[in-house]
Amino acid sequence: MTITLKAAVSGQTPPTAAPPLSRRPVRGRVDRTVVILASAVAAILALLICYPVGTLVSAAFGDKGLAVLGRLATDPVNQRIVGNTVVLGLIVGVVGTAIGFLFAYAQVRLSFRGKRLLHILAMVPIVAPPFAVATAVITLFGRNGAISSGLFGIKGDIYGLPGLVLVLSLSFFPVAYMNFRGMLESLDPSLDEAAAGLGASKLRVFFSVTIPMLAPGFAGSFLLLFVEGIADLANPLVLGGDYTVLSTRAYLAVTGDYDTGAGAAYALTILVPALLVFLVQRYWTSKRSVVTVTGKPTGHTELITSASVRLPVLAVVCAISALIVTIYLTVLVGGFLKVPGVNNEFTLDHFRFVLTGLGSKAMTDTATLALIAAPIAGVLGMLIAWLVVRKLKRTAGLLDFVGMLGLAVPGTVLGIGYALCYLTPTSVFGVQILPALAGGSAAFAGGVAIVMVYIVRSLPSGQRAGVSALSQIDPAIEEASTSLGAGSGTTFRKVTLPLIQSALLAGLTFAFARSMTTLSPIVFLTTPGIKIMTSQILAEVDSGRFGNAFAYCTVLIVIVLALILLINFLVRKVIFRGRTHSR
Known about the structure:
The protein is an all-alpha fold. Helix content is 69%, strand content 2%.
């Protein structure tokens, strides 16, 4: 692949007779810009992640925390809570991974109409609040649900483990879907052709070629969904019933018993398996590499038209898609009903409450904080990716690991950690270096801490996208810029960022959507001066005002979609002025 640098810095292309550029830095030569940037990034990550997590671990090993940890090991009730958490994570990991794979396989390998619609349906949960599904499921399938009671007359009980598995699997399967879709699109079709040429049937090709090539995807998706399942707070609060898990126990310890030591101990119990799973995943991906011979797909993948394969897969996918459509239509329509499922008279009172009452402040506050956090998270992710892939050697792995901790550290753990360390001023050796950042008495009513949490939770997606994009770009293009006299900072700003603008856009989009819909860490940091929409929705659900909750969810989804379109327009047409870069 030939890459040409067109007047990136000086307007002149490097002379053809110049000696080849060395791809290794000169030994003993220190790039001050890189040192400054790396030090600044390390300090930011320490404040965003390391300090809160370290504070939580310290609190968990205090007197109250140790007492709780002891009861977790000896008390049957607490042991059952730990078991409930692990079982929930395992089932959600298996079911969510299977759903994601089926959707991706249908999208990439099967021949049928409506693929764009299927993709949209698979991505809807990303822009929706985490417990919108739970609220709709209660309305549809609860003890007095519109479907379970009204249509079929079956008194079902959706609360507990079955309901949680259903809701969490439908909420988080897009993670597995995106993973499998990318892997299936990158598989070399010649491998299937070679196996078929040797006489293997399509079923045997599927199990002997396709599935082994996707093994890292299955492992990675299962581990990610396991972490999401054990760490989720919103859905167990709404739909858990008597099925208590560690996240709800930690939440009740902090907000109900005002016992931060106990909350830290419960959170630590969630953190340990989450970190272990994260480390196993990194070890798996670093040791097990599944690649094609050429590194790029060759030829065209033949879509499957056989009814024996298409019909079973599409039947399952269509059934799940119908359930997704039903759930989100319930969210949309429920905002216009007086009491959804009970009194279905049309009303605009719920939207009037959201748009003119407390909801108006919640919309403004949430959107403002998310718009502040998204560009910081996006640029920081690209900067970390650039340092890891291009500039750092010995410390690259450590920096990459710390940056990705926002994905590994559960939201409940992060929220309690922030509440413990940033409710009071931060001091080092008796010298105050930071004022209180969380709580009603802090600056901007604690909004700074909320923005920091948004950045931590959004950073890993942009970082991974940046690493992937930079790995596909020949380093010579940046070295050419340096040889023309540009410093590392100028090269990053004028050459690297434009080349990875698609990764930057993906990071910005996900950062904004994640910030607008996150709840687990924010519930510990909200104050009377800051209204967050997800926290307000939870309050409405707890009070049984499902109509207001549905109206909030609908408005939130509309805001997320509208501002994502605006972000895409600004990045492509204003910041980069419509420039595209071929590689």
